[in-house]
Amino acid sequence: MIQKFRKRPVVVEAVQLRWDMWDEICEFVPKEQFGGGFFVNGDNQTLGLRIRTLEGVMEAVEGDWIVKGVKGEVYPVKPDIFEETYEPVDVEVIP
After folding, report:
1. Ordered strands of the 56-61 beta sheet
2. For the whole model, what pTM was predicted?
3. Which of 40, 58, 81, 89 has the greatest number of C-beta atoms within 10 Å?
């Protein structure tokens, strides 16, 4: 029998990849997960960052969000997907 399930609500930390946030990003992403450093996107000359994830090395470009999962893993999320998936949480409300 096919059953339906609802995904449990999970609170995550995230930082948007903006170069004025570089110090925060360096603190947020564990050093072992920097996956090859920076690159320049040839189409629009924006800078990007390679991140080692559970699925392999992924590339984040300026404006993407870097999310820290429930087990401390980090991964990039495109802004439109981030907005559809996550909403801000009042830190004082979290038990």
Report:
1. 34-40, 47-53, 56-61
2. 0.79
3. 58
